[in-house]
Amino acid sequence: MINITVNGKPEQIDIEPDTPLLWVIRDVVGLTGTKYGCGISECGACTVHVNGEALRSCSIPIGGLEGASITTIEGLSADRSHPVQQAWIEEDVPQCGWCQSGQIMTTIAFLKQYPKPTDADINANITNICRCGTYERMRRAVHRAAKALKA
User: What predicted TM-score, i.e. pTM, was given to this entire model?
Assistant: First the structure.
């Protein structure tokens, strides 16, 4: 048994320890907001927070996460009221939407380190891939969220 907390709820997971966290979140816990993209930690669609750090869950074995606290997109707010989610909505960022939960989770962690980001900071540090190419809208949303978080 592996004990973790997902979005504030304790979970006892009985699964092979080399199972990626992504599949535990989706198939065992039943939260499908975290998406599978590439399976090799390149695209970022599977980004969640592990003990407050944004990590790509497709390549993290559950066996090394005993006692960890995991936050998924579903754990941010019940009504999409988190400032980053609101910025995404206000800037009309999603096109297909597949990468957006990972983009949002990455942005939240990024803004803790860069509360007043420049476009160069965003370009260098938010490396998630969006096949639809909504990068300009994402940049605007990151700036909007930064302003909202410091207000």
Answer: 0.96
